[in-house]
């Protein structure tokens, strides 16, 4: 959402937080309930968006 509003710094911070949580879910930090293929897909999408935002800020 921040990306669409032009606030890249906030968008990057949000995507980094989401990426960290999804990585922890997939590593089993919160039990085995989150070790699901859809979370891997979500992580890939978040990582891709974060990469795009970082490229634009260079």
Helix content: over 70%
Question: Number of helical runs?
Answer: 3
Note the run of SSEs as H and E.
HHH
Cα separation of the termini: 20 Å
Structural class: mainly alpha
Please tally the β strands and state the result.
0
Cα gyration radius (Å): 13 Å
Features:
58 residues, 3 helices, 74% helix, 0% strand, elongated
Task: Give a description of the structure.
The protein has 58 residues and is mostly helical. It has one domain (2-56). The chain contains three helices and no strands. The chain has helices spanning 2-5, 8-26, 37-56. The chain is elongated, with a radius of gyration of 13 Å.
How would the blueprint of this fold be written?
Layout: H1 2-5, H2 8-26, H3 37-56
In short:
The protein is built from three helices and no strands.
């Amino acid at each position: 959402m921040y990306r669409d509003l032009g606030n890249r710094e906030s968008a990057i911070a949000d995507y980094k937080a989401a990426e960290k949580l999804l990585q922890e879910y997939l590593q089993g930090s919160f039990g085995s309930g989150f070790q699901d293929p859809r979370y891997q897909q979500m992580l890939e999408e978040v990582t891709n968006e974060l990469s795009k935002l970082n490229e634009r800020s260079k």
